[in-house]
Amino acid sequence: MTATWTDVRDWILERNPDLTELRPETDIIDSRIVDSLQFVELVLFIEDLRGTALGSDDVSLDAFRTLKSIEQTFFS
Questions:
Q1: Pick from 5, 11, 60, 72: most CB atoms within 10 A?
Q2: pTM as predicted
Q3: Nearest to 65 by CA among 44, 47, 42, 48
Q4: Using an 8 Å Cβ cutoff, are 15 and 38 in contact?
């Protein structure tokens, strides 16, 4: 099975039980859906899904801002 942004969405929803829906364009950083501690976990989760470590150049805040940007940066 190939990992996609939906795997990331499901991971975020599991950690935010009050959140029932997450659109691909929602800014998960500014909206504080993913806080600073979860951000580190998110990076590790994406590395696990990809099967490879992310380089320091890959870890920019904008790359993680939305599910859409996560898909374009890490899963395309």
A1: 5
A2: 0.88
A3: 42
A4: yes
